[in-house]
Amino acid sequence: MKKLILITIVFFNLQLSSCQKSTKIATKSEPIEKSITDQFFKEFTAIYGDNGLLQTGNTDLKKGSFEIYLISKNGAKQWFDNLNAKNKYEITIEKLNHSSPNEIAQDFDIWVFYTNKKYLTELEDQSLGNKIPGLVELYYLKAGTSKWKKTREYQLKTDEDKIKFNDWKQKILEDFLSLSNKQNINPSSKLSAKWIGIYNAYFSYGQIGGENAGWNLRIEISNDTIKATGDGYQISFSDVLTAKEDGNKLILNHYKNLSGYTLGEKMNPEIILTEDKEDYFITTKWIDKDIITKSTKFGFEISKEKQ
């Protein structure tokens, strides 16, 4: 991976006096959670970035310093390449900048390098820097959740530790990107064997104009690709999906549209496949409220072809 070039942002002046040691920890995060939720997290500044690593943040002597990084839950490279292929990267960034932090947190993992206001001081050029001694804490919010976790901290002890701190932070970000991309490359090849196969379901609208109306859904899961195809009354689409196992559920996220309607681009997950005692069920926003096919507590039943 090319070495990340981290941009010095106004809000987090990297006159950080860093320290000799970093520590991995797992503690409760009441201070950061309250600060972000009640104060800063309502005031995102411009979001920008490259290669799937986005950043934003702010600094205020009354609130603290927040350097924030965002990575799509679908994988940084996959997300970035998919948008570039559709020439939608700039448009997507613009939309993100008009979205609320809570909306963004549904689709992005968020990391915050946080400096408590008590460790900040105003410098001669009126920018903000870190006091010595000081402390920078790293917090994490998993996409779709609401609980912040403090994962690491870096103690600032001398002015000579600035380079060490930047190297520490850069290594962490590189690791995040690498892990994100590895988790989302050919995900179907890592799935349990029970998911591999072809699934079919029919969803009925009943009689319309004297004829039966409805549509067929076909999901093909192999070691190489995952494809969902819908065809029938007022619907036609073919999408490539990515997958992630979650217990007895297979979370299928949109990757790209091959043909037909593109509504799946706004559905993440696009489909959730659930297994219960070798029976399979799905939930998806493709199924509208006018469908009369009965659902179960697990979702709509879908049959798996025998191999």
Description:
The structure is a single chain. This protein has 5 helices and 17 strands. It has 307 residues and is an alpha+beta fold. The strands form 3 sheets. It has an 8-stranded antiparallel beta barrel. It has a 7-stranded antiparallel β-sheet with strand order 1-9-8-5-4-3-2. A hairpin with a 7-residue loop joins strand 8 (134-141) and strand 9. The chain is elongated. Residues 1-21, 24-30, 37-43 and 185-189 have low confidence and may be disordered.
Roughly how many Å is the radius of gyration?
23 Å
- Biggest beta-sheet profile: 8 strands, antiparallel, barrel
Q: In terms of structural class, how would the helical and strand content be classed? A: alpha+beta
Uncertain segments are 1-21, 24-30, 37-43, 185-189
> How many beta-strand elements?
17
Number of helices: 5
Q: In which range does the helix fraction lie?
A: 10-25%
Produce a short descriptive summary.
The protein has helices at 30-38, 76-85, 89-96, 101-104, 162-183; strands spanning 21-27, 48-50, 53-60, 64-72, 108-115, 120-122, 128-130, 134-141, 149-156, 197-208, 211-221, 226-232, 235-246, 249-260, 271-276, 279-284, 300-304.
Task: Please supply descriptive tags for the structure shown above.
alpha+beta; 8-stranded antiparallel barrel
SSE layout:
Elements: E1 21-27, H1 30-38, E2 48-50, E3 53-60, E4 64-72, H2 76-85, H3 89-96, H4 101-104, E5 108-115, E6 120-122, E7 128-130, E8 134-141, E9 149-156, H5 162-183, E10 197-208, E11 211-221, E12 226-232, E13 235-246, E14 249-260, E15 271-276, E16 279-284, E17 300-304
